[in-house]
């Protein structure tokens, strides 16, 4: 905190009645509220005046650390200058600057950026782009979409249809038609405690050939995967798996989409997972780290070949009937420009790569602690998987979450997996505190 102590910033608890909270047990939360009232760098401060280390960068998003002064300043300046600009044959300069900065960071050949407001919107936009791309090329029969089990692609109907998490689907009835799923690649009996990419599992990409054989390539528009699946537990791609998917897609004229909502902008110690793994998809979806979580924004990044295909109709006509009121919003664009500048000026992406070994060793030191059955990591992302209790699969991880919060560290849990994704400014002492707190919480488990 710059001036005030955490205790001085403690605030009164608001009336909790009317807010319907997303993705959380509302009734349990309202009995046990935990409110963050301010944040700075690696730390969050609570309503009751406590300081916590943020071991998850908000929700895998505050890569530059909380309330970075340059980003805050850019948002303030933009808010005072231009609050909004509509998109119908009008725009504003900052969003063009941002498109240039993002595509300059992207793998070679990815030269265009389409802005949206979230990861979910980025996914639905990319799926629609893929379908429209084939249609414009006279390939209108390519309508099938392929996702993967344990994939998370946000909460739009496109995203939950290609996603592979049953609780996110089963409340909502019919999904998009014509969707198949590749098998997930998580296999503890083969890959537990791997360092680096898991050695077993690249052959699972060949399932795409089975799907092609079943439906015929002429019906398939796109495959979407997270290069590293984040929300279902930090599942790293087996060595060679992504390249194999790329090769099969190329062979059959299928577009490959990487959902990099979590993995872009330094999270894996490289600009994108695509650059880290040396496999370039046709479309990349991003959000989160694009603005370091400060103002909601997502983007779909596209190869020139895709953009050019859309630009072949009559000039003056709308090329893609899709977009949002707030696409490329000035505040988000200003936050994005400042964020990407901060990553560059402060060398945060290189820093993430250089800290990878430290996080890896620290995480692996948890091997042998009570109930731990796997540890995995890459860049500034890691996970510790716990043995589930039959009939209450999330009980242990939730207990660790609560205990860590009480001891001063915010972690994320997903099922029985504890995830780490600290801001890229993380230092040795934060890693030590994160890991030692989790260790003590594991030892306190019943
Ligand atoms: N895709 C992936 C890979 C994600 O991790 C997320 C969010 N965790 C999303 C899409 C959805 O993003 P949002 O919550 O911003 O809609």
Q: What does this protein look like?
A:
GO terms for molecular function: adenosylmethionine-8-amino-7-oxononanoate transaminase activity; pyridoxal phosphate binding. It is a single chain. By secondary structure, the protein is α/β, with parallel strands linked by helices. The chain has 16 helices and 15 strands. It has a seven-stranded mixed β-sheet, with helices on both faces. Strands 1-2-3-13 form a four-stranded mixed β-sheet. The mean pLDDT is 96. 4'-deoxy-4'-aminopyridoxal-5'-phosphate is lined by residues 118-120, 123, 152-154, 226, 230-231, 259, 261-262, 287.
The unique ligands bound to this protein are: 4'-deoxy-4'-aminopyridoxal-5'-phosphate
CATH architectural arrangement of the largest domain = 3-Layer(aba) Sandwich
CATH topology of the largest domain: Aspartate Aminotransferase, domain 2
Task: Report the portion of residues in β strands.
Answer: 15-25%
Percent helix among the residues? 25-40%
* Total strand segments: 15
The unreliable regions are none
Distance N to C terminus: 36 Å
| Rg of Cα set | 22 Å
User: What is the general shape?
Assistant: globular
Which CATH first-tier class of the largest domain would you pick?
A: Alpha Beta
Number of helices: 16
What's the mean pLDDT score? Answer: 96
Largest sheet: 7 strands, mixed
So, the CATH homologous superfamily of the largest domain? Type I PLP-dependent aspartate aminotransferase-like (Major domain)
Protein name: Omega amino acid--pyruvate aminotransferase
Keywords: Aminotransferase, Pyridoxal phosphate, Pyruvate, Transferase
Family: Belongs to the class-III pyridoxal-phosphate-dependent aminotransferase family.
InterPro entries: Aminotrans_3 (IPR005814), Aminotrans_3_PPA_site (IPR049704), PyrdxlP-dep_Trfase (IPR015424), PyrdxlP-dep_Trfase_major (IPR015421), PyrdxlP-dep_Trfase_small (IPR015422)
